[in-house]
């Protein structure tokens, strides 16, 4: 399966020689024939880094390393100069491109190039970013050597992240906020890697709760501004699954956190759906109940579907709009299924909801091109059907689909 609309490009050696590359891993046939180490193919957007002789040798060496054999773990120096910003930005945009969709257009990765981050922090940030990049390369064949390299990057990043957790200075507000941002960015990067290469079932939950604790210190007002808003938005998306899976509400389900961060931004239908997933079953939301009929009526009235990009979304291809409607149905029906299971209502209703969720999920997963985060979302929906469906046959069907789909988006074994 091809992730998103990403292209697979020839390795750098073949591009430089202008010859055809078969993209074999770990070495393409041309590099094998020439007895050269293959730098590997690249996926997604290509970013050209022009190296000139005025750059420090250390920066040029770092760029060559990142272009080189990614199965070898880098020893990143503690201070790597201004060249690190370009490398980190390139990786952030490349990884973020896997997560773009018309209804989720705010991957927090894309805020990285705009931030003034210290060289020391960027050297730490390279570790989980490299882990994700190598993991994406390992996904098609579940390549064991690439997977091992990805885990080494992740382990090194986690170790350095944990060392930073003890260096906050709470009484110095500006320094404190900057430190929180650094920790949040690292937590989110480690979380994203754990989602695509879990060490155990739901092993990303601790990273999510850790990021949630840091976000609480920023406060709902602080989350009105970028990049905290993008992190907040993505964490809401992740915590909606945690809430449904554990039936435990976080502070993100409070009225304050559902309203204040969005005061200067238009909340979309997708955001409203996430609201309903974050609250307890018995909590009354001071707004219109959002069901499928309400969503359809608002769509007919040209209400924004994309995040502050309603006009662009309305001009999207019909297939994108249809996929958006299916994603919304999946989320709303999962919410209803979990609520119905908690209240022991009519099993026929639960069976009907489970059938609808699996039907929409199968259609989405049959697409030739699907954003990575949407694939994870649909896979999570199948997991919840396996957990809450009243019918043993539906549970079995959902569990099998979950296992099949998980192998397409997650490194396993």
From TrEMBL:
Q: Which domain of life is it from?
A: Eukaryota
Tell me the GO molecular function terms.
DNA-binding transcription factor activity, RNA polymerase II-specific; zinc ion binding
InterPro entries cross-referenced by the UniProt entry: Osmoadaptation_assoc, Zn2-C6_fun-type_DNA-bd_sf, Zn2Cys6_DnaBD
Cite the Zn(2)-C6 fungal-type domain residue spans from the record.
10-38
Q: Which CDD domains match?
A: GAL4 (cd00067)
Q: Which UniProt keywords apply?
A: Nucleus
Q: Which SMART domains match?
A: GAL4
Q: Which Pfam families match?
A: Zn_clus
> Could you identify this protein by its name?
Zn(2)-C6 fungal-type domain-containing protein
């Amino acid at each position: 399966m091809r992730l998103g609309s990403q292209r697979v490009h020839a390795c750098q050696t073949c591009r430089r020689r202008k010859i055809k590359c078969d993209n074999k891993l770990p070495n393409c046939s041309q590099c094998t024939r020439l007895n050269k180490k293959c730098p590997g193919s690249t996926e997604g957007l290509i970013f050209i880094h022009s190296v000139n002789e005025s750059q420090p040798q250390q920066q040029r060496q770092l760029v060559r390393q990142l272009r080189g054999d990614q199965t070898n773990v880098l020893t990143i120096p503690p201070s790597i100069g201004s060249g690190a910003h370009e490398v980190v930005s390139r990786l952030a945009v490349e990884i973020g491109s896997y997560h773009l969709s018309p209804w989720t257009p705010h991957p927090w990765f894309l805020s990285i190039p705009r931030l003034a981050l210290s060289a020391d922090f960027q050297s730490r940030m390279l570790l989980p970013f490299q882990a994700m990049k190598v993991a994406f390369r390992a996904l098609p064949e579940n390549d064991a050597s690439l997977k091992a390299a990805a885990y080494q990057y992740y382990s090194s990043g986690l170790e350095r992240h944990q060392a930073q957790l003890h260096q906050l200075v709470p009484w110095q507000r500006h320094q404190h906020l900057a430190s929180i941002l650094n920790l949040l960015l690292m937590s989110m990067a480690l979380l994203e890697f754990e989602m695509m290469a879990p060490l155990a079932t739901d092993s990303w939950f601790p990273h999510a709760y850790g990021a949630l604790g840091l976000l609480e210190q920023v406060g709902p007002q602080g989350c009105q501004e970028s990049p905290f808003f993008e992190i907040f938005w993505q964490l809401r998306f992740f915590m909606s699954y945690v809430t449904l899976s554990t039936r435990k509400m976080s502070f993100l389900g409070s009225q304050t956190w559902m309203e204040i961060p969005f005061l200067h931004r238009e909340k979309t239908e997708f955001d409203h759906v996430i609201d309903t997933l974050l609250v307890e079953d018995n909590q009354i939301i001071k707004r219109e109940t959002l069901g499928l009929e309400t969503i359809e009526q608002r769509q007919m009235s040209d209400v924004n579907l994309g995040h502050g990009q309603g006009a662009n979304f309305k001009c999207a291809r019909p297939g994108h709009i249809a996929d958006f409607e299916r994603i919304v149905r999946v989320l709303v029906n999962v919410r209803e299924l979990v609520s119905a299971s908690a209240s022991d209502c009519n099993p026929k209703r639960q069976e009907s909801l489970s059938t609808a969720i699996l039907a929409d999920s199968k259609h989405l997963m049959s697409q030739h091109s699907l954003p990575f985060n949407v694939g994870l979302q649909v896979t999570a929906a199948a997991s919840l059907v396996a957990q809450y469906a009243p019918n043993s046959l539906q549970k079995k069907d959902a569990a099998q689909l979950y296992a099949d789909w998980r192998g397409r988006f997650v490194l396993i074994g």
